[in-house]
């Protein structure tokens, strides 16, 4: 299996507020291979947005606190990175598409300025004018290698390629260059008549347009990982279908990995290659999307899929999950789903929550294993 | 459909005038208006659920408010049990309000955060009590005036309708406590505040408030759009149970086709202020005739991981409602549009071969057989 773009290992995020400690994300591990779309689905308050914001460390700390775990992005652990170096990761490394485009676009900037700013930062980083994120220098181990010899240093040119090459590379980019590139990205997100859109403010655009601009901004920085946090939840059905269609086409065109977060099972089924199901801060099931949808191996996933209304009134009541989502301030011991679970036994409450264990299919080169965090995963199939 | 509907809308319109601009004033042109609801005919039978689906900006919420007389209609007639209530006002309107109640869209904003549960749910009971006493007092005054003198010697109030005793707080609390279990809330939470409930709990509270005065029609404005699937299933089940037990009619306004499928008996599809298709729920959702209904149904993402890699074909945004041009409202986005579609407003007429199924499309016969899935053209197979 290829090196994953991002791997989250045993991540726990708590919110420390006056009312107590809210365990928003507990012991979540997942990895995103290059070019794959990983979906996370769950109900409100299950910690999926906290996870999305914790990965690029966008989450305000405090009140949030990363208690334990590692977020390994392109081989570097982001958890110990100091706050002042984090902007270097964002944008060109990890891009974000947020839920509410009107709140995430600057209302005082025209569309051109918003996208040009992103492009400019990418160019500056590419040319070395702005620093890019590199893992901190490893302390030099003097015991293993001698210092570089003086003669070696003198024989190398100080600027690689010479001063003229550097100057040619760093030629001034004019406004026309930026304009051309902005238009290119607007066409990429299928905006008709981009020349007019360029000079509009966000409030003059419709919801679908705004979300396209957000996608254009995120893509223009050429991130290697894109985190989409409920990108279509604020949109209408037909507009949502347009944006999803666009995103599906773009997945084939740009080779970014995507972490796609949504509460809408329909949207996730359309978009994701792999699917993780979260419940009360824990990842309860993970696997290829078809396996999770058609052979769920966790009782929560099964119940969630069954509660989608797909029948008429005279066909009988809708199956629903009894009870309500537990408070994250005081989650139930053991498996957090056991108070509402139809196959719960005493062991579910007594023992600590089970880890994700392989069920069914084994991992292949391009698909992860189907895993479930249930003591009785084998029995889930027999549930109605 | 029964002979005497509960509510009948005849050519109902609602326009919101825009402020007259300087240019309009200088050119002596009238101010423009937003035609939120444009000549809508609809009827609701007693005990029936009519689902009103459409995207945001289609005027479905405005129509719901007009039915509940929260907005006065600017044109047309609103009949309730055969009586014209379009021009009702003052005390008569207040007394009439017990017939139609509303569950508002936003469960946070529609509950006063400073009131306790018994005050919130008891408020309509109080208001109706007040309206009834005022009505009785008016009646007594009228009778007293009609009588020339009190010569007979009988006490003056003997033949007058007696005023009922005032509603005490204890009695009100008792009534609220009896009501709460019917919507699935514990009866002992009378002194809680709205913020102590989850989203689903708040929606139940809102529902209890609407049902407190035993209305004949409840307008449900997006009752589940703020809720997750599992909670949505609980609420939808409760709605159907309540309807069976109490015989209340629902006008359910939503963009969620799945929720309407489960709750509704009949469905009306709205687009840009007009009803494009109306009929029994199975007819409309399984054999839609109008191209917009097909587009709407095709756009809803299916929670089925096998039906993937489809591309949605309807482009364009929802046009503006400001002084719309005549002709079919959907014509600019319709894949089957012809010049005659934009000539005049197509009337709502019986769909080919289905009683009670009406559609406003001039090409109904030609497009009836086209399946919604043809609007999802399959993507070319990825070349491996």
CATH top level of the domain at 7-99 and 215-376 in chain B? Alpha Beta
- Biggest sheet of chain A: strands side by side, in what order? 6-7-8-3-9-10-12-11
Strand content of the residues of chain A, in percent? 15-25%
Helix/strand/pairing category of chain A = alpha/beta
* Radius of gyration of CA atoms of chain A, rounded to a whole number: 24 Å
The overall strand count of chain B is 14
Strand order of the largest sheet of chain B: 6-7-8-3-9-10-13-12
Tell me what the CATH architecture of the domain at 7-99 and 215-376 in chain B is: 3-Layer(aba) Sandwich
| CATH architecture assignment name of the domain at 33-58 and 87-93 and 225-371 in chain A | 3-Layer(aba) Sandwich
Oligomer: heterodimer
Most extensive protein-chain contact, per-chain counts = A-B, 47 and 52 residues
Which features does this protein show?
heterodimer, A: 384 residues, alpha/beta, Rossmann fold, eight-stranded mixed β-sheet, four-stranded antiparallel β-sheet, 19% strand, B: 384 residues, 31% helix, disordered C terminus
What is the element layout, followed by pairings?
The complex is a heterodimer of chains A (384) and B (384).
Chain A: E1 6-17, E2 20-32, E3 37-41, H1 48-54, E4 64-73, E5 76-77, E6 94-97, H2 101-104, H3 111-127, H4 150-155, H5 162-169, H6 175-188, H7 194-197, H8 207-220, E7 225-229, H9 237-253, E8 257-262, H10 265-271, E9 274-279, E10 282-288, H11 289-294, H12 299-306, H13 346-350, E11 357-358, E12 371-372
Parallel strand pairs in A: 3-8, 3-9, 6-7, 7-8
Antiparallel strand pairs in A: 1-2, 1-4, 4-5, 9-10, 10-12, 11-12
Helix pairs in contact in A: 3-6, 3-8, 6-8, 8-9
Chain B: E1 7-17, H1 22-26, E2 33-44, E3 49-53, H2 60-67, E4 75-80, E5 83-84, H3 90-96, E6 100-103, H4 117-146, H5 169-179, H6 199-211, E7 217-221, H7 229-246, E8 249-254, H8 257-263, E9 266-271, E10 274-280, H9 281-286, H10 291-299, E11 310-312, E12 349-350, E13 358-359, H11 364-367, E14 376-378
Parallel strand pairs in B: 3-8, 3-9, 6-7, 7-8
Antiparallel strand pairs in B: 1-2, 1-4, 4-5, 9-10, 10-13, 11-14, 12-13
